[in-house]
Amino acid sequence: MCEGIDINTKIIAVVAVVVIVAAAGGAYLLMSDSSGSKEYSTDEYPSRLMVLGNANLDDYLDERDVAYLENIIKQEKIDYDNYFMCDANFDKVIDEQDVDYLKKMIAEQWDDITYAYYVNVDYKVCKFDMTTSKKCITLIAPPLDNVLILNSSLVVGVDNRITTGKYAEEYNTVLDISKLVDVGNCNDPDKEKISQASKDNGGEMIVVCGTQESYGPNMEEALAGSGVQILRLPSWEYGATTQGFITLGYLLDEQDNAYKYMEWYDGVEKMVQEIIKTIPEKDRPWVAAAYAHTDSLQLLGEYTGEYANLMKLGVKDVAEKYLNGQQTGGHGNAISNEAVSAMVDQYGMQYLIGMVGAPFQTQGEYQAMVNTYNTWKNAIGPALDECEFAICGYSFSSGVSEVLNQLILGKYIYPDYFADVDVEKYVNEYCQFLGIDDKWTYDSMNLLYCNDPSQDIMNNRG
């Protein structure tokens, strides 16, 4: 349940009045507009562990948060906007009661306090009943990946793209699809099936999904009273992969597995960044990424994992120049072949990365990758004679596997600098984390095709 507090809402008031509200052991500072509503905002997610009570904004709830909170409430005035993560019990007051609540959270005395409060994908503070079953229904692949890494036994239902759709091949060795509840379309899931799954689980169920705009917009209202908790956390949205993953690990009581994976994830990303630091500006090319599995190329911008991973590789940003301050949608902006030519001629694009459904989907088969490459190479024509072009799979570009995309594209764009990086090792380790390694390994995947055997990362030629 979300409590109607939107921390991403900007205060729009002709006259703003500062109100000091006294609290035991301290006070907090609010902004009140002329209507009397009390709102506060943030431009980004507050921390990787987005659970209120994480006062010092690190990845853990522990005694360091208690000490931090105790120091905060000694202040004569507390700016609630800056310190709302200290409000462990989310009563809009930062005081000694938050210290007591936080201590019970750390001791996992959930029978006493019941709820943890967290920031969801839509920047709303919501509450989660920590005393209930952790069985989950997931919508779309990235939230499913998160739960599989944390504890695959928690998954009891998925959407139809997992059961019978394009992602089925990826998961059929780690999940017994025949025993899962199929809730249909991830954008408008079958609420009756979700409700029945809750009944079958003693009146308790969790739906793990993304934004309210995209995934079951009316689930909260339609499933009220059914024992279903809608847990909306970023799994790929807005580049907040780690925030959603660590927070989910906490709420599902799977912190150990969450921290184990994050140690691996952070290690891979740190390795990539250490290499990027050594690359001089003159060796950093102009690059753009586009979805290449649609009728027209879709130029990708800041809302997508593909774009975010490219930027982490320190490349020069063609999309920003081409868009000239405009934003792309979540699935990019359609661009013509002529636009590609313009990006090469006018903006100096040196690499274009075409993202397709690979390595797990049909488009990831060897000949399909080659055919897609040839189709676009022929369609775009002379512009690609002046620009390097590659086809890469989007399945590793968004969500907790995104560090693999950084490795794969780093190996392609900077072959000399990434020469000693063992992509095979890290791909196989990820598959083990996900539990799909009975079928999927580096040797059974096609990861990147550029029609150059020295740079192609293609292994499944059968």
UniProtKB/TrEMBL annotation:
Under the heading PANTHER family, the entry gives: PERIPLASMIC BINDING PROTEIN, VITAMIN B12-BINDING PROTEIN
Query: Transmembrane stretches, by residue range?
Result: 12-31
Q: Which InterPro entries match?
A: ABC_Transporter_SBP, Dockerin_dom_sf
Q: What is this protein called?
A: Periplasmic binding protein
Q: Would I find Transmembrane helix among this entry's keywords?
A: yes
Where does the source fall among the domains of life? Archaea
Give any single GO term for biological process.
polysaccharide catabolic process
The protein's organism comes out as: Candidatus Methanomassiliicoccus intestinalis
Hey, what's the signal peptide range on this chain?
none
Name the keywords, alphabetized.
Answer: Membrane, Transmembrane, Transmembrane helix
